[in-house]
């Protein structure tokens, strides 16, 4: 029986699972969206949303908790991938991402199922996005009409 057992195992050990979720969360914060399988996407949302809620508090204790749960890494320069930026993922979370969600009380992420499957095992592919950070199709179409 699985009473009081929460979360998916994802065919990984506990340490591998936490490392994978940390890496996915860091990539999501850094890029705004991540493409992964559907079960991983659902677990990623459960991992990232409390971090964003903590980052909205913007206190030293909240920053330390986020660093403890997420670990921290420097972000790569999008123009030159061999070069690192001065900002880290946690700094971007507190400076850029959390202020955009100041008026939102939850639901910071969106899971979009794609019509594609992974080649090796036909796993469902989904895109996890941060709401209001990655533009939607309607916003892109409206921007194309205006400009």
How many helices? 5
**SSE succession:** HEHHEEHEEH
Average pLDDT taken over every residue: 92
The first-level CATH class is given as Alpha Beta
Going by CATH, the homologous superfamily would be: Ribosomal protein L17
The fold-level CATH name is 50s Ribosomal Protein L17, Chain: A
Structural commentary:
Helix content is 48%, strand content 20%. With 147 residues, the protein is an alpha+beta fold. Strand 2 and strand 3 (84-88) form a beta hairpin. The radius of gyration is 17 Å and the shape is globular. It has a three-stranded antiparallel sheet.
Blueprint of the fold:
Blueprint: H1 14-31, E1 33-37, H2 38-57, H3 60-70, E2 74-76, E3 84-88, H4 89-100, E4 109-117, E5 124-130, H5 137-146
Antiparallel strand pairs: 1-5, 2-3, 4-5
Helix pairs in contact: 1-2, 1-4, 2-3, 2-4
């Amino acid at each position: 029986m699985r009473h009081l057992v929460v979360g998916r195992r994802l065919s990984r050990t506990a340490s591998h699972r936490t490392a994978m979720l940390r890496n996915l969360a860091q990539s999501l914060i850094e890029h705004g969206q991540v493409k992964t399988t559907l079960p991983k996407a659902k677990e990623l949302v459960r991992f990232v949303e409390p971090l964003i809620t903590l980052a909205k508090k913007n206190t030293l204790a909240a920053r330390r908790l986020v660093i403890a749960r997420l670990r921290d890494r420097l972000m790569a320069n999008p123009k030159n991938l061999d070069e690192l930026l001065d900002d880290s993922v946690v700094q971007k979370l507190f400076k850029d991402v959390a202020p955009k969600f100041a008026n939102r009380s939850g639901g910071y992420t969106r899971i979009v199922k794609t019509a594609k499957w992974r080649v090796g095992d036909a796993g469902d592919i989904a895109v996890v996005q941060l709401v209001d950070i990655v533009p939607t199709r309607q916003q892109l179409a409206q921007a194309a009409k205006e400009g």
